[in-house]
Amino acid sequence: MIIILGFDGLEYEYVKKFGCRNLMQKHFGKTDLSQFSEPRTIVLWSSFLTGKNQEKRILSGDLWTFKLKKEETFFNHFKNFYVLDTPGYNYSEDHKKERDALRAFFEKKGTVENYDEVAFENHKKIKEQFFNALNSGTNFDIVMGYFGVADVVGHLSFGLEEKMKIIYNELDEITRKVQEKHPDATILIVSDHGMKKIGRFGDHSNYAFWSLNIDKNLGNPKTTDFYSMIINNFKMSS
To answer: What is the pTM of this model?
Structure first.
């Protein structure tokens, strides 16, 4: 089984600084995003899922309602799969609440605390759904869970390291539980982009994070490179 943990906005430097050993796994590094004009969430995850740069296609329409067909993604190469809340595929409408809360903050109609509350409520729900599926006993060939909390909280608080450390420890613990319950699975951790500080705030950086629990160093792959690696269970040369 392949398990993909999609951690939106996971920053390479924070993973190292906070000593998140479970997130690092056997090999880890940065993903090259130079093929994209800007590191946009929907574009990057859609490109990851299809192995093709989807930037032009997505930006010609409505960014937040864009949906890929199964046949366009690497899921189509697996008989039994489970994919949870992934941008560009089955991204939940619940995330609109986060965007609304962010807008309310900048319009001085809401607070950071209100925004964080929405983010953590979504995270709690997604986490429960993910582990229920993963531990259901279903014989999945591939499972992908998407967790947006590091990105969502990071937009207003990335410069507050002690606060972000709590988020990274939470994602490290999720990874530990997955590793512990499924020691024979191939576990890929990916982010769409990292983050950079702008005062207390955070913005998308022009690289991403990856890690793998098997003895295969992927180097500095492009987001679109993962498609062929995944459908071949990382047997191909990276």
So the answer is: 0.94
